[in-house]
Amino acid sequence: MTAVPSSGSSALTDTFGRRHTYLRISLTERCNLRCTYCMPADGVDLLPRHHLLSFEEIIRLSRLFAALGVSKIRLTGGEPLVRKDVSALAAALARLPGIETLAMTTNGLLLDRHLDLLCAAGLRIVNISLDTLRADRFLTITRRSGLEQVIRSVDLALNAGLDAVKMNCVVMRGVNDDELVDFARFAADRDIEIRFIEYMPFGGNGWQNKTFVPYPEMIRVLQEAFPGMHPTSDDPHATAKTWRIPGFTGELGFITSMSEHFCGGCNRIRLMADGNLKVCLFGRGEVSLRDAMRDGASDDELTALIDAAINGKKASHAGMEALAIQDNRPMIRIGG
Ligand code: SF4
Fold first, then answer.
1. 276: in domain
2. CA distance 120 to 85
3. Residue 5 belongs to a domain
4. β-strand 286-288 against 251-255: which pairing, if any?
5. Kind of pairing, strands 164-171 and 125-129?
6. Which of 56, 113, 220, 301 is spaced 20 to 30 A from 235 at the CA atom?
7. What is the CA(12)–ligand 1 centre distance, in A?
8. Residue-wise DSSP of 65-80
9. What residue owns the CA closest to ligand 1's atom 4?
10. pTM of this structure
11. pLDDT tens string for the chain (336 positions)?
12. Total domain count for the chain?
């Protein structure tokens, strides 16, 4: 392997001085749910297997990103747990020099089958996506059943000795916005962070402004129910604004990409299941590291591609109305 720039190299620092130390890897475009805000109603045409990154390719790219300064990797999908070699991948990624934190975002349906192996492999943080606590709505939102299984997985994860367990809930007006208080109560006696995510426009998810519930409105509703609720301090790179309710074990987080973006402290880049590097969730520019690798690119050449992509990153995403009409992948193909 030819010498690559030492850790903390400039290759992962963009023109705004943001160092990108957090890599989100989408392991698959497959999922065992069909959530309305993620998967277009008529689904997505799955790419042929050989279009997706192999185990070895994911490890090679992750080793390179780690050498360039990435210290945190999050595994996403589709649903990462439908990928057969997920535990072996997790173990290999956690062993990479420079990787300090391995995290995963899952819908929780299969977590009970993999949790022990994943924890042994070095997984430290789990985010479980759940947008309702009502079985009837679970069916409407995900087009599948499984609520009890997901809640069982949450409690399993809470007892697995992980550094953090979080629940991701996309808040949609007229769909689940009347469950904010119930979700908050879920954190009363659980050491969990309930994350309320503002509904975002992605390819094929039919996003409309009238379905979007902004952060200030969520806070107003919750403060009425929990008057003592107060914000806690946040680090500049944090994606969530966190709040605490006195007497509660857990806390609340708010992902405010649409009403109060946090692009100034962005340290995230995304590797798609098809090997494209996406430097911004809403950025349209992507570069195929898969094709470059398969064309025989060296690590220096891959680093140059990564460097160029990062240097093309914009200061922040466009406004929500502009994002709503802009072409972007469906969420299932990004992985959040
Ligand atoms: S929208 Fe793009 S720049 Fe802003 S926080 Fe998300 S990934 Fe970073």
1. yes
2. 15
3. no
4. unpaired
5. parallel
6. 220
7. 15
8. HHHHT--EEEEESS-G
9. 263
10. 0.94
11. 344 444 445 789 999 999 999 999 999 999 999 999 998 777 788 899 999 999 999 999 999 999 999 999 999 999 999 999 999 999 999 999 999 999 999 999 999 999 999 999 999 999 999 999 999 999 999 999 999 999 999 999 999 999 999 999 999 999 999 999 999 999 999 999 999 999 999 988 989 999 999 999 999 999 999 999 999 966 666 789 999 999 999 999 999 999 999 999 999 999 999 999 999 999 989 999 999 999 999 999 999 999 999 999 999 998 888 998 888 899 999 988
12. 1
Around ligand 1, the residues with Cβ closer than 6 Å are 261-263, 266, 268, 280-282, 316-317
Nearest residue to 184 (alpha-carbon basis) of 175, 174, 196, 198: 196
- The whole-angstrom separation of Cα 128 and Cα 294 is 34
Tell me, yes or no, whether 8 lies in a domain: no
Q: What single-letter amino acid sits at 125?
A: I
In the chain, DSSP finds a helix count (H) and a strand count (E) of 10, 12
Q: 315 C-alpha vs ligand 1 centroid, how far in Å? A: 8
- Nearest ligand 1 atom to the CA of 262 is 5
Q: Which residues of 279-296 are buried (b: 16+ CB within 10 A; e: fewer)?
A: bbbbbeebbebbebbeee
Kindly report the backbone phi and psi dihedral angles of residue 76, in degrees, each rounded to the nearest multiple of 5, phi listed first. -130, -165
Q: What is the domain range of residue 87? A: 22-334
| Span from the CA of 263 to the centroid of ligand 1 (angstroms) | 5
Contacts of 331 (CB under 8 A, 6+ apart): 37, 38, 39, 202, 203, 205
Q: Whose CA is nearest to atom 7 of ligand 1?
A: 280
In angstroms, what is the span from residue 149 Cα to ligand 1's centroid? Answer: 32
2 occurs within a structural domain: no
Structure tokens at 50: 């050989």
Which ligand 1 atom is the nearest neighbour of the CA of 266? 8
